[in-house]
Amino acid sequence: MNRNHLRQPRTLTGLVAAAVVALALVPMSTASAQQHRPPQPAGPDRPATQAALEDLVASGTPGAIARVDLGRRSWYGTAGVADLERPRPRTPADHFRIGSITKTFTAVTLLKLEAEGSLSLDDSVEKWLPGVFVHSDYDGRSITLRQLLNHTSGVFDILKDQDFVSRYAGAAFLEHRYDSWTPDRLVKIATSHPPLFEPGDGWRYSNTDYLLAGMVIEAATGQSYADVVESRLLRPLHLDETVVPGFSPTLPEPHARAYSRLFVDSPEAPVYDVTEFNPSIAGAAGEIISTTHDLNRFFGALFGRRILPPHQQDELLTGVDTGRGYEYGLGVRTYPLTCGGTVWGHDGDIFGSVTYAVSTEDGSHVLSLNANDNWNDDEPARNVIKADFCRSSAHQGRP
C-alpha cells in the first residue's frame, strides 16, 4: 500500500550496525543466473548509489538492496542486515512485499484487457460492479475505470477508516495478522464513508480504487485476480520470482525479515517482526511479492514500450496534477529529480517493507530498491534514486 498511509515513526538509533556488500556492473545472462549470482566486491561504476544505500542503513533501516539495469549491464548493491536476531547480509535474490507497486501491475492488466476488447477504461464502475457502493452519495454510473486508476474517483480510502487501521496498530497486529479479507468486504467498509469529492473534480490517493479495479478484472474475465495477472504479465514476461500470494502469509525463500513499529508514533515504540501476515488486507492495491530483478524486468519492458500498444502507453503516461509536486498517470507516477529531468515508476509501503521501482521514460535505465522496515523517512530512500539517476545525468547525458 502507499507510503502516505502506512507511515511509521521515522527514528531508530543504535539498532543495527551496517554490513555492506555490493556488486559490480556485470553482463546480463539468463534471469536465473542474474537472480542468484554471488556477491562480488564493489566496483567503481556506481559508488554514489552504494553510498546512498549505506546512508539509508545509517539512518535507521536494518537492511537495504538495490539493482540498476542499463541495457545489458546490471549492478547490485546491498547494505545492512537481513535479520536483527541473527545478523546476515541481505542478498540480491531476496523476495519482498512490494506494497503499492502492485497498483502498476493492476493498472497494466486492465490496460491489457482493454487492448483485448474485454472492457474500456471509460466504462463505469456500475457496469462491472453493480451496487458495489454502500453510501448513498456514491453514483457508480459516474465513476469510470480510468478514474479508479488515476485516483480521481473521489472514493474513500480504506486506510483512512480508523477502526480498520486500529486492528493493525501496535500489539493488535499480533491478534489480527492472519485475518482474511475479501475485496468486497474492504470496499464495503471504505464506502460506508461518503465520497471525498465528485468524480473527476479532484485527486486523492485511495487504495480502495485499486481494490475495485481488481474486482473489475475478475468480473470482466471470470477468473481470479491472481490468474489474470499471471497470464497477462508474469508468465509472458518471465517474472518467475514474482508472486500474487492471495491469502498466503509467507514469503518465498530467500528473504529478509521485515520490521515495523505498526503505526505507533513514538521512537520508544517496540519493533515488531512482521514478516508473516495475510496479504489479503492489501489485495490488488498492494499484495504482490517480487525481487529487484523482476521489478526491473517489468518496468524496463513497460517503459521500453514492450507491453502496451502505443496509444495505451500514452494513456499510461497521461498524468494528473496531484498538487503535491508530481503527476499520477495510470498506476505510475513521476519523480522529479533535483538535477533536472523526471523518472517514472511507483513506490510501495506495507508492513515491514518499503520499495521503489523507477525508470527513465524509454526504459533504458531502471532502478529498484527495498528496505526491510517502514519507519524511516522517505528522503534516505529517495536519495538512492537521486544518486543513481543524477549520476547518469552528469556522466551519460540523460536524466
UniProtKB/TrEMBL annotation:
Keywords tagged on the record: Hydrolase, Signal
Single annotated GO MF: hydrolase activity
The keyword Hydrolase is annotated on this UniProt entry: yes
Q: Where is the signal peptide?
A: 1-33
Asked if the keyword Lyase belongs to this entry, the reply reads: no
Report any Pfam family annotated for this entry: Beta-lactamase
Q: What is its EC number?
A: 3.-.-.-
Beta-lactamase-related domain boundaries: 51-383
Q: What is this protein called?
A: Serine hydrolase domain-containing protein
